[in-house]
């Protein structure tokens, strides 16, 4: 080889040695960008986080999503008219292409906020996360794996129960209610009815947060009832079961549910129960209901009427409106029946709250020892 060609070959090797790392870096960056774009465009799970004045909690909720071992997800945070700077907290995470902020302007309620996110969601699965709750790192991977292995339309896990401000859970939903998980048994309509207010079970399926197959929701045109601001989860799950969804559960806890002391006492139950009763009546007007479904819904309506009669009397009495309490007690024959089933637990909770000064005795899900 002549000296001229040797010089050219040496120059080519020098250029290649310098250029290859640069090209490699650009290629790697381009591949990473394309991979991220494809992940966002075709996520396995769309996590829906509605937030209203959750400035102190929403960051932790988002971070628990970003730590998921199942990374191919999108995180849709819907700011429902917050005025405390929640949106500014969310914007700190927008550099991750998986996070998106949707702002509604005026407060429209959690059902509307979730429906807006459902319309935008691209994931195979829908997962909901409250702005003051978090998830363990492997939660979505476990639930999606269980759902795909079984062919289920909904799959939920147990909940860790944590008091607001605490770090260590005081119990789980299963442990607090004595519920025994049957992993291979699908949840049916009867179990759903008995797990709601007025039912025989202390377990509350409406508190669970299952992942839901988006194609199933789309096929049956199921979304959250915007008329409900409390109990919207249970109604959506109920509609899924009525539409024939296969709903399974795994026994382990991966969702961290934040509970505030005395929350059940501070929330007026009469308007909540009235809204649930209206929703139940709307379901009963459907011509597509089978005989067994209609019978179960009639039982659910009876439970709601019984609880509504009881709450109308007790809430009026708590407010000092004794004449109103007497009026409702005389007008509602179901009051005494419900009082008989509630009195033992009522006395125990009041004793612990007033005499033992247990601030959590009146919670919806008190510790198992109470």
Tell me the span between the first and last alpha carbons. Answer: 93 Å
Rounded mean pLDDT score: 85
Basic shape: globular
Percentage of residues in DSSP E strands: 5-15%
- Structure class: alpha/beta
Q: Any key phrases for this structure?
A:
alpha/beta; 14 helices; single chain; 370 residues; nine-stranded mixed sheet
Task: Please provide a brief summary of the model.
The chain is an alpha/beta fold and 370 residues long.
Walk me through what this model shows.
The chain has helices at 3-41, 58-66, 86-91, 110-120, 139-150, 173-177, 189-194, 214-219, 232-242, 263-266, 269-284, 291-318, 322-331, 334-354; strands at residues 45-51, 73-79, 99-103, 125-128, 134-135, 154-163, 171-172, 211-213, 247-259. Strands 1, 2, 3, 4, 5, 6, 7, 8 and 9 form a nine-stranded mixed beta sheet that branches. The longest helix has 39 residues, at 3-41. The protein is α/β, with parallel strands linked by helices. 36% of the residues are buried.
Write the SSE topology.
Elements: H1 3-41, E1 45-51, H2 58-66, E2 73-79, H3 86-91, E3 99-103, H4 110-120, E4 125-128, E5 134-135, H5 139-150, E6 154-163, E7 171-172, H6 173-177, H7 189-194, E8 211-213, H8 214-219, H9 232-242, E9 247-259, H10 263-266, H11 269-284, H12 291-318, H13 322-331, H14 334-354
Parallel strand pairs: 1-2, 1-4, 2-3, 6-9
Antiparallel strand pairs: 4-8, 5-9, 6-7, 6-8
Helix pairs in contact: 11-12, 12-13, 12-14
């Amino acid at each position: 080889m002549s000296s001229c060609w040797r010089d050219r070959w040496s120059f080519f090797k020098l250029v290649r040695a310098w250029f290859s790392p640069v090209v490699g870096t650009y290629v790697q960056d381009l591949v990473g960008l394309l991979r991220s774009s494809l992940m966002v465009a075709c996520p396995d799970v769309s996590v829906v986080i509605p937030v209203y004045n959750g400035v102190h909690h929403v960051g932790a909720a988002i971070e628990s999503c970003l730590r998921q071992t199942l990374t191919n997800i999108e995180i849709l945070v819907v700011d429902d008219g917050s005025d405390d700077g929640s949106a500014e907290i969310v914007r700190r995470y927008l550099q991750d292409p998986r996070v998106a902020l949707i702002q509604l302007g005026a407060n429209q309620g959690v059902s509307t906020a979730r429906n807006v996110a459902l319309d935008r969601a691209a994931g195979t699965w829908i997962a909901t996360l409250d702005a003051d709750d978090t998830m363990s790192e492997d939660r979505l991977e476990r639930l999606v794996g269980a759902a795909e292995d079984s062919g289920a339309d909904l799959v939920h896990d147990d909940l860790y129960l944590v008091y607001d401000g605490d770090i260590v859970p005081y119990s789980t939903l299963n442990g607090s209610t004595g519920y025994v998980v049957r992993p291979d048994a699908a949840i049916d309509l009867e179990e759903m009815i008995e797990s709601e207010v007025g039912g025989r079970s202390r377990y509350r399926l409406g508190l669970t947060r299952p992942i839901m197959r988006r194609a199933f929701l789309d096929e049956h045109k199921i979304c959250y009832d915007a008329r409900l601001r409390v109990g919207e989860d249970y109604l959506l799950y109920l509609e899924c079961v009525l539409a024939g969804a296969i709903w399974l559960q795994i026994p382990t806890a991966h969702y961290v549910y934040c509970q505030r002391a005395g929350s059940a006492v501070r929330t007026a139950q009469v308007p909540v129960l009235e809204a649930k009763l209206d929703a139940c009546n709307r379901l009963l007007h459907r011509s597509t209901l089978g005989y067994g479904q209609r019978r179960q819904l009639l039982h659910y309506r009876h439970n709601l009427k019984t609880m509504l009669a009881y709450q109308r009397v007790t809430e009026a009495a708590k407010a000092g409106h004794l004449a109103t309490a007497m009026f409702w007690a005389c007008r509602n024959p179901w009051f005494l029946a419900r009082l008989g089933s509630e009195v033992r637990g009522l006395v125990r909770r009041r004793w612990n709250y007033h005499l033992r000064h247990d601030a959590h005795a009146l919670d919806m899900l008190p510790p198992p020892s109470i």
